[in-house]
Fold this protein.
Amino acid sequence: MTYFSEDDINNLHHLYRINLINSCSGYKSANLIGTKSEDGIENVAVFSSVTHIGSSPAMFGFFMRPTTVIRNTYENIKSTGYFTINHIHKSIIEDAHHTSAKYDTSISEFDVTSLNSEYKNNFQAPFVKDAPIQLAMEFVEEYHIKANNTILLIGKIVGLYINNNLIEKDGFVNLSKAEVAAINGLDGYAVAESKVRLGYQRPKK
């Protein structure tokens, strides 16, 4: 096996280090977060850090890099209090990834890709049309991670839309049926197949 000490990691070329550390954590969720500014400009951006916080109340969180430069997603959420989480699926991977490009605040990523926005139940933020799983989120709180100046932003689910054929009898959402993508590192996309589900485990007697 290739071994990297802490010093080795710190001395790597910055792009190599970014790729190495981002990919060695394993596959991550691939989501598009939709927001709209107070001026009505839509924004959609790819994130690979969305994580489950709790089920009661139902909350998700995601990490944001330092706000030392303008972060449209962050600014829109803080100013309006709302955002959407939309699962990336096989047919939109390239357009979804292009939303990582740094466009001016006045330009909507919906206008420079084939992605389309849609609105449901008068929710303030745009959903990504045809995403098999869409979550309407309300901002709850944020935590500043002092060690690297990042932000953990937490929201609660106030609306959940899931394609009918994905929900199994026990509530499990079968992502493989929707060809939902996962991200390895910053730019490696994969579409997983569901192989097996293992039940709740108890100690052996």
About this structure: The radius of gyration is 18 Å.
